[in-house]
Queue: 2 jobs
Job 1
Amino acid sequence: NAGVTQTPKFRVLKTGQSMTLLCAQDMNHEYMYWYRQDPGMGLRLIHYSVGEGTTAKGEVPDGYNVSRLKKQNFLLGLESAAPSQTSVYFCASRTLSGYTGELFFGEGSRLTVL
Amino acid sequence: AQKVTQAQTEISVVEKEDVTLDCVYETRDTTYYLFWYKQPPSGELVFLIRRNSFDEQNEISGRYSWNFQKSTSSFNFTITASQVVDSAVYFCVHSGYSTLTFGKGTMLLVSP
C-alpha cells in the first residue's frame, strides 16, 4: 500500500517563485491536512480539508493556498515563496471518525527558499 | 483553542534508564483524544498510542506505558529500560473533532 504520498520530496526555490506540493492518499480518507515542521516548533497546521471540495484554515495559513478537487488529492500552493517558508512540509490523512482516527503521514517534503 | 505543552525540550539518558516524557494540555472540548507520535532521525512520523478523554486507564505496551490524568490535564509517557533505538523526537497531540494540535516535541537521546 502506498498510503500517503507527497511530491516532490525536495525543492529549492528562489524568493518570489511559486510552487505546488501534491499529496495523494489511497486509503479513501475524508480528512486531509498540511503541516509544517520547523526546529523547536513541533508541527503546525497550515490548512486542512474535511472532504472533497472543502478546505479550512489552520494555525499558520498565511502565504499558502490549498485545493481539494478530488478526494484522494490535497494540493498546497505557495504563490510567492518567502525565506520564512523554508520548512519541512507533512501531509496527513485520517478517516471520517471525528476525534478518534490517527493521522497517517507522508514522508515529508523539504522546501528551501533562497 | 487547544494547547499542548511539552516542557522538556531535550532529555539525555543512558541505555537501560527509565525516562518519562511529560505532556500537559489545555482544551475546552468535553470530548477529545490524545495521541503520542514518534519521529526517529529518519524523519517519518510513527503513531504510538491513542487515548480518549473518558478513559483514564493506564496503558502498557512492552517497554512503553502511558499515564493519563484528566484532573491534571496530563498524558505522560514512560519508557522503561530505554534503548538506543528509542532516540527520537516524541510528540504529544490533542485531537478535537476536526483538527489535531501538536506539542513542540521532546527530543530523547539514549546513549549506549
Job 2
Amino acid sequence: DAGITQSPRHKVTETGTPVTLRCHQTENHRYMYWYRQDPGHGLRLIHYSYGVKDTDKGEVSDGYSVSRSKTEDFLLTLESATSSQTSVYFCATEEGLAPTYEQYFGPGTRLTVT
Amino acid sequence: AQKVTQAQTEISVVEKEDVTLDCVYETRDTTYYLFWYKQPPSGELVFLIRRNSFDEQNEISGRYSWNFQKSTSSFNFTITASQVVDSAVYFCALSGNYGQNFVFGPGTRLSVLP
C-alpha cells in the first residue's frame, strides 16, 4: 500500500461550478497521474506530472487543469463542470527506481455533475 | 496515434483452467512501455506489470506470465490454473518513453467459475 488517498471520494455538483479533486501520496513518488473511467470509453489519461510544477496533458485534458506545488499533492480542477465530466476519477503514482517498477492507484473519486 | 486493442471482450473459464488475454498495440515510437492492470469487481485498480519495448524477455510471476512479441506487436497475458479471485477486468496499456500518449485498451472481462 503506497498511501495514496483521494478526496473527496464522492461528490455531486451542478453544471458550471468549479470542482477540485485532490490526490495525496506519502511515498515521495515523482510521477503522478489523473485518469477518468467511463463506461464505453474505458480508462483515459487526463494529465500527468513528472515533478513539482512539471505537468503535461494526456489524452482528454480539455476542460481540466492540474497543479502540483508539492511532491505529495496533485490537484485536478474542473473550472466549470459539465455533465460530460461525470465519471470516476483515479489518481496514480509511479515508482520507477530500477530494477523495480510499481504503480499505485488511489481508491477513486466518483463525481456526478447534474 | 497510439492504439491498444483487446479483442476479447469477455472470457469465461472454469477454475484451474489456463487462460490467455490478448493485447495488440500500435505505435510509431521506437521506445515505449506496455502495461497490464487488473480491476476486480470492487473497483480498485491494480498494476500488474510494465515492460520496456527493448526487453522482449517473457516474464513470469507466480501464476501470471506475459509474452511480449515485437514482431506481432502483441503483449499477451496468461493466467495459469485460474482461480475465482482472478475474476476481474484486465486492461492492457501503452505509453511513450516519458509517459506521454498513455492509452488503455478497452479491457477484457474475465470470469472464473468455480
